[in-house]
Design a protein that fits this description.
With 54 residues, this protein is mainly alpha-helical. Helices cover 87% and strands 0% of the residues. The longest helix is centred in the last third of the chain and has 28 residues. The model has no long low-confidence stretch (mean pLDDT 88).
Length: 54
């Protein structure tokens, strides 16, 4: 994985969050973020299970 400048990453994340808040509202943004984190956790779990079997 390539290294990325943390300031640039923070800028991108902040910009996306700002656009989401401005367009869909606070609670919808919270729901989207929750589902993204949930998907990340499930994906990580499934990947770990796949590596265990090998």
């Amino acid at each position: 994985m390539q290294r990325i400048n943390k300031a640039l990453l923070g800028l991108i994340i902040g910009g996306v969050l700002g656009l989401l808040l401005a367009t869909v509202g606070f609670w919808s943004t919270i729901l989207i973020l929750f589902l993204m984190v949930l998907g990340y956790l499930i994906g990580g779990y499934l990947e770990a299970q796949k590596e265990k079997k090998e």
